[in-house]
Amino acid sequence: MNLKLKIWRQPNKDSKGGMVNYSIEDVSPDMSFLEMMDMLNEQLIKSGDDPVAFDHDCREGICGMCSMFINGEAHGPDKLITTCQLHMRKFKDGDTIAIEPFRANSFPVIKDLAVDRSSFDRIQQAGGFISINTSGNTQDANAIPIDKHNADTAFDAATCIGCGACVATCKNASAMLFVSAKVSQYALLPQGKVEATDRVLNMVNQMDEEGFGNCTNTGACEVECPKGISLENIARLNREYIWATAKG
Amino acid sequence: MSLKIKSSIVRKYLMALSGLFLVIFLLQHFTINLTSVFSKEMFNFLSHFMGNNPLVQFVLQPVLIFGVVFHFIMGFILEFKNRSSRNQKYYNFKGKANSSWISRNMILSGIVILSFLGLHFYDFWIPEMQYKYIEFLPENPDRYFDELVHKFESLPRVIIYNISFIFLSLHLLHGFSSSFQTIGFNNKYTISLKFFTISFSIIIPLGFILIALFHYLN
User: Fold this and answer.
1) How far apart are CA B83 and CA B94, in angstroms?
2) What ipTM is given for this predicted complex?
């Protein structure tokens, strides 16, 4: 496959960026998208140009590091995958592919396609944990009976990898799906109920402080989430937050 | 709660609750308008009651106006905040790949409805206030139907009203079910609720359109 690429290049967070055109030839349809980017970078290095900076780590859809906005969609034109799981067979010979970083004021560009998602870390630090000591004295899993539905729902919420596709794809740059998943994974389990009130208040307050937009229920985040985190979590977050606010 | 008014979720909650309040008002307004198609006397009776009952005039009407103003102001506040959350726009943003046009353009349908409300107030509410509270004209319980019919003699007005009702339908198609999601209602009844809200969002504005056309054609 021969492809034309339009890639966002930005030397650093303070400089102004822009889309730059590249051509790449002999791309295998079996390559992953990141392998195609590696191939482009080898080409750039050989020609003495600066390679394109982009985030990646596990390359198997677990870590949530890869964060490209490809042809107008977070993680590209496929559902329930991260960019590293996107394969070039999804494109046709001669296609032009626009590649941008995840865009939100709360995700400032570090360089090219790499963005700073530490705002998610700060939200998590504000309350996304339990204080119960789980090291060394773990109870038997069956000691506390947990409703199967709640256990499954909490597990589904816990599959959020914090990639930021929800923020990137939301027209408002809202982080509600991420925060709701992190709140839900604890809210449904007995261990998480101890700090439930403080957790939801602190995490939502931190989310607002980071400057994310409001959720307007377009549902785009749910569609583009590589882990299929459901909007039910946002409804749960809203309930938890209002209940916690009423309790003070 | 009042201390949390700057919270994004509290603002969304209030937006949803004010929207649901307006939906209830819309249903009441539609019910009274519908009687104009079947019975001139019934329409006059209900309009006279709504226009002269002290509870409606001095309690419910101010609450309604507050609800309308609040919904629009909060809508603009949320829209402004949302737009300012992403200063650098995407070169290529394929919104239609994951969301409906109307869900992404509630501010547009809202502005059309706001403009329509301006015309609607100019047509009916302001003359009513002048009649009762400025000119202090003697009350005539039989005047309401004729005033309604007179307004819908104008084709441009009927067209503007009906276009506005289409935008009202679009606004409701997303907003009505969305408000339940915002107040935390998303469970096994959501599919049935969605069916109800979609039906409501089509039937009520369509009813308003048919009422306007009925009076224009008659």
Assistant:
1) 17
2) 0.93
